[in-house]
């Protein structure tokens, strides 16, 4: 069975992308997207620059297959070229969004170049806030906090004599 996800990320290489990809990306992809061009990354030894590449996030309306996500990104390819060889499902959309500019704890530990927020480009109504979902544990914690607040309020009414049974 094919793996499906709503959010996918891939790495594309500009030398294999159409020349107008930056201007036409929204029209070509026709999906909410975010990307950052990584042109200041270093190889693991830290001495040599890594090949320029573009991290791209796609946000589909519904879950879709890896194959389809890859097909969408590769619409940015030059004729006869493949700009992106693989895509990965995005488990945590906020983390991936921050990874675009290397604004994660892991990136800081590895001393990766921190790209400016202005270098993270979003289009076609990509809205990170609307894509984030609360985990079950976060929902449970919020429900507990609300119940605790209600209980405190009721206890206060009893204490003040404003409410009796």
Identify the notable features of this structure and list them briefly.
165 residues, alpha+beta, 6 helices, 35% helix, elongated
Description:
The protein is an alpha+beta fold and 165 residues long. 35% of the residues lie in helices and 21% in strands. The protein is built from six helices and five strands. The protein has helices at residues 21-29, 66-73, 93-99, 105-109, 128-131, 136-159; strands spanning 4-12, 33-38, 53-65, 87-89, 120-123. Strands 4-1-3-2-5 form a five-stranded antiparallel sheet, sandwiched between helices. The longest helix is centred in the last third of the chain and has 24 residues, at 136-159. The model has no long low-confidence stretch (mean pLDDT 89).
Provide a concise account of the structure shown:
With 165 residues, this protein is an alpha+beta fold.
- Helix count? 6
Trace the largest sheet across and list its strands: 4-1-3-2-5
**What portion of residues belong to β-strands?**
15-25%
Taking the sheet with the most strands, its summary is: 5 strands, antiparallel
Strand/helix succession? EHEEHEHHEHH
Q: Quick check: average pLDDT?
A: 89
Structural class of the secondary elements? alpha+beta
Distance N to C terminus: 59 Å
> Helix amount, in percent?
25-40%
Total beta strands? 5
Radius of gyration: 22 Å
Envelope shape:
elongated
Low-confidence stretches: none
